[in-house]
Write a structure and sequence with these properties.
This protein is of the alpha+beta class. It has helices at residues 11-24, 37-42, 50-76, 83-93, 96-108, 112-117, 155-168, 191-200, 214-225, 245-254, 320-325, 339-349, 380-392, 398-404, 417-425, 431-437; strands spanning 144-150, 174-182, 204-209, 230-234, 238-240, 258-267, 274-275, 280-284, 290-294, 306-307, 316-319, 353-365, 462-463, 466-467, 472-474, 487-488, 497-500, 508-512, 515-518, 535-538. Helices cover 32% and strands 18% of the residues. It binds uridine-diphosphate-N-acetylgalactosamine and manganese (II) ion. It is a single-pass type II membrane protein.
Length: 551
C-alpha cells in the first residue's frame, strides 16, 4: 500500500456547500426555514435579490464540486489491490457525508446533492419573450396526460418535474401524470416514491416495468395507458415554466396534425440555475445525430410558433389519437437514441408538422453524458438509426448516412415490414420531398469519413494538428461551443489535442473543456465559398460530424 499526501483542503467541500444552504437559502433555491408557509407563499423570489446570490451559489458549488472531484480522483489514482484499504483512505480524506454526496453526484452526472436541498416547488424565472403573458388561448377543453419515463432518475429531480407541472398548469387541464418506471433499481424510487408523490398530487401514478424497455418502448407503454385527449412527453429532470401548457394545446387545437414543442430551456447540471435557451430550430447531420440549427432568417415575431425540421425528442405535445394513427414509435428501437429523428421525419413526411412554441418553456437538465448503462446493447443510437434510415431515407439518400457512418452498412435493420406498411397506409411523401420542402439546409451538411480502429481499442494521445497548406496548427484555445476553429502558429503555446478512441466507435478530437472538433456544428455553414467551417461543439463521442482520421 502506498501512502500519498494529498494537498487538497478537505473542509472546502463541506463548508461551502453547507454554508450556502444556511446563508444562501433564498427564494430561488430554499426559502428561509423560519418563515411560515403563508409567508413563504407571499415572498416573491425576486425580493431576495436572486441575481447575486444565484451567482454566489453557483460559484460556491462549482468550487465545492471541483474540490470533491479532485479528492476523489486522487484517491482513485492510488494503486492498490486492496479495495478495503482504498475505501479506508477515501473515508479519511472525505467525511462520510461528503463521500456519499459525491458518489451520488457521480452516479447521476448532475448535482444531486444540491437538487436534494432545493425546494421541489422553487420558482423559476419567467423567461418567456415579452408579449407571451398577454396572449390568450381560447377554446381548449382537452385534457392532458403527461408521460414521464424514467430509469434510475434522482428522486428529487423526478419529483420536482411533477411538482412544477402541478404548480404551473392551469387547473383542470391535467388529466393525469403517468410516471413510467423503466426497471429502476434505486431504493428511493421504490415504495417511498409513492408516498412522496401523493404529498404533491393525486393525479400522478407510477407504472412499473420489471424489464428494461428503453425510453422508446416505455413511452409507447405510457401512451397506451393514457386516457387524456392530448399527450405531453417530458424527460424525468425537467421544470415547466409559467404558462407552459396553453400555448402547446392551442397549436394542436388549430391543427390536430401538428406536434408542438416547448422551447427547451437550460437547467445547469452543476448549479441547477435555470436560464433561457436561444431561439433555434432542430435538424440533424447525415450521421443522423440531432443538432441545433440557427434560424434561416429573422423570425417575424418573437412570440409566434415556428416550424422546425426536427425535434430534440424529449419534450412535445401531440394529440393522443394522432400519435396512434401515425404509428406511435418503432417498437424495435432500444434504450435511447434515433427515435427523435424517426418521429420527426414521419410526422413531416406523413402530412403533419412540428412547431416550436416560444411562449411555452420547459427547463431540462443537460448532462455531459448519460449516467445510466444500456444493458450491453451497444450503440443503440446507431442501431436505431439504421432502422430509421432503411425506412425513411428512400430514393438512394441512405448512402449519405452510410458515407457518414460506414459501420452502419454492416448492421442489419431487422424486420421493417410493419414500419413500411405504416408509411404506405398514410401515403407519406418521399424523403426528397422532405429535403425540398422542409429541410433544404440538410444537403449543406458535411461529414467526415473515418478509418477503422484497426486493433487499437482505446487510447489517448496528445498531439498537434498541422494544416498542410498553411503550415499552421489547429488552435486549441476555445472558450465556448460554436467558437469557429482557427489555425495558429505551430510554435505557439497552447494545450495539445487529445485523440479519444472509445472502443470501435469513431475518434473524436477533444479540444478541452468538454469541447470537440465538429464539422457539422452550428458554424459549419459560415465559411462560405463551398467550404466548411469547423467549430468547437459539445463532445458526444458518437462519431458523425465529430469523427476524424489520425494519420
Ligand atoms: C434527448 C431527449 C430524450 C430522447 C433522447 C433520444 C430532450 C430534452 N431529451 O436525450 O428525451 O429523445 O434525446 O433518445 O430532448 N430513460 C428510460 N429508459 C432508458 C433510458 C432513458 O426511461 O433506458 C428515460 C430517462 O430517465 C429520461 C428520458 O428517458 O427521463 C430521456 O433520457 P435522457 O435524459 O438520458 O436523454 P437526453 O436528454 O440525453
Ligand atoms: Mn434528458
Amino acid at each position: 500500500l502506498k501512502i500519498y499526501f494529498l494537498d487538497v483542503p478537505s473542509e472546502q467541500f463541506s463548508i461551502s456547500a453547507d454554508a450556502l444552504i444556511e446563508n444562501g437559502a433564498d427564494g430561488n433555491y430554499i426559502l428561509p426555514t423560519d418563515l411560515s408557509q403563508q409567508e413563504r407563499k407571499q415572498k416573491k423570489w425576486k425580493e431576495f435579490n436572486p441575481a447575486r446570490k444565484h451567482k454566489d451559489l453557483g460559484e460556491n458549488l462549482k468550487t465545492a464540486n471541483l474540490h470533491a472531484k479532485k479528492k476523489f480522483a486522487a484517491v482513485e489514482s492510488i494503486e492498490t489491490d486492496d479495495a478495503l484499504g482504498r475505501d479506508a483512505l477515501l473515508g479519511m480524506i472525505l467525511s462520510d457525508d461528503d463521500a456519499a454526496a459525491f458518489r451520488e453526484n457521480e452516479k447521476h452526472d448532475f448535482n444531486v446533492f444540491l437538487s436534494n436541498k432545493i425546494r421541489l416547488d422553487r420558482n423559476v424565472p419567467d423567461v418567456r419573450p415579452p408579449g407571451c403573458a398577454e396572449k390568450s388561448y381560447p377554446g381548449r377543453e382537452e385534457k392532458v396526460s403527461v408521460i414521464i419515463c424514467f430509469h434510475n432518475e434522482a428522486a428529487s429531480a423526478l419529483l420536482r418535474t411533477v411538482q412544477s407541472i402541478v404548480t404551473r398548469s392551469s387547473a383542470g387541464l391535467i388529466e393525469e401524470i403517468l410516471l413510467i418506471d423503466d426497471a429502476s433499481d434505486l431504493e428511493d424510487l421504490g415504495e417511498s416514491l409513492l408516498a412522496r408523490l401523493r404529498a404533491i398530487t393525486l393525479v400522478a401514478r407510477v407504472v412499473r416495468q420489471q424489464v428494461r424497455n428503453g425510453l422508446i418502448r416505455s413511452r409507447i407503454r405510457g401512451a397506451r395507458e393514457a386516457i387524456g385527449a392530448v399527450l405531453i412527453f417530458l424527460d424525468s429532470h425537467c421544470e415547466v415554466n409559467v404558462g407552459w401548457l396553453e400555448p402547446l394545446l392551442f397549436e394542436i387545437a388549430l391543427d390536430r396534425t401538428a406536434v408542438a414543442c416547448p422551447v427547451i430551456d437550460l437547467i445547469h447540471a452543476e448549479t441547477l440555475e435555470y436560464s433561457a435557451s436561444p431561439t433555434v430550430r432542430g435538424g440533424f447531420n447525415w450521421g443522423l445525430h440531432f443538432r441545433w440549427d440557427s434560424l434561416p432568417s429573422k423570425v417575424p415575431s418573437k412570440t409566434e410558433p415556428y416550424t422546425t425540421p426536427a425535434m430534440a425528442g424529449g419534450l412535445f405535445a401531440v394529440e393522443r389519437m394522432r400519435f396512434i394513427e401515425i404509428g406511435e414509435y418503432d417498437e424495435a428501437m432500444d434504450i435511447w437514441g434515433g427515435e427523435n429523428i424517426e418521429f420527426s421525419l414521419r410526422v413531416w413526411m406523413c402530412g403533419g408538422s412540428i412547431k416550436i412554441v416560444p411562449c411555452s418553456r420547459v427547463g431540462h437538465i443537460f448532462r455531459s453524458q448519460r449516467p445510466y448503462g444500456n444493458d450491453g446493447k451497444g450503440d443503440t443510437q446507431l442501431t436505431n438509426s439504421v432502422r430509421l434510415a432503411h425506412t425513411w431515407l428512400d430514393g438512394g439518400h441512405i448512402t449519405k448516412f452510410f458515407d457518414a457512418r460506414p459501420e452502419a452498412r454492416l448492421i442489419q435493420p431487422g424486420d421493417l415490414s410493419q414500419r413500411l406498411s405504416i408509411k404506405k397506409r398514410l401515403g407519406c411523401h418521399s424523403f426528397q420531398w422532405y429535403l425540398d420542402n422542409v429541410y433544404p439546409e440538410a444537403t449543406q451538411n458535411t461529414t467526415f469519413s473515418r478509418v477503422d480502429a484497426g486493433g487499437a481499442s482505446r487510447f489517448t494521445h496528445k498531439f498537434k494538428l498541422r494544416h498542410l497548406a498553411s503550415e499552421m496548427c489547429l488552435n486549441t484555445n476555445y472558450q465556448s461551443k460554436n467558437d469557429r476553429a482557427t489555425v495558429t502558429d505551430c510554435d505557439s503555446k497552447g494545450k495539445r489535442l487529445t485523440l479519444y478512441e472509445p472502443g470501435d466507435s469513431s475518434r473524436a478530437v477533444v479540444l478541452g473543456k468538454k469541447l470537440c472538433l465538429d464539422g457539422g456544428g452550428e458554424c459549419a455553414d459560415s465559411a462560405g465559398g463551398g467550404s466548411v467551417a469547423v467549430c468547437a461543439a459539445k463532445c458526444h463521442f458518437n462519431g458523425g460530424s465529430q469523427a476524424w482520421i489520425y494519420s
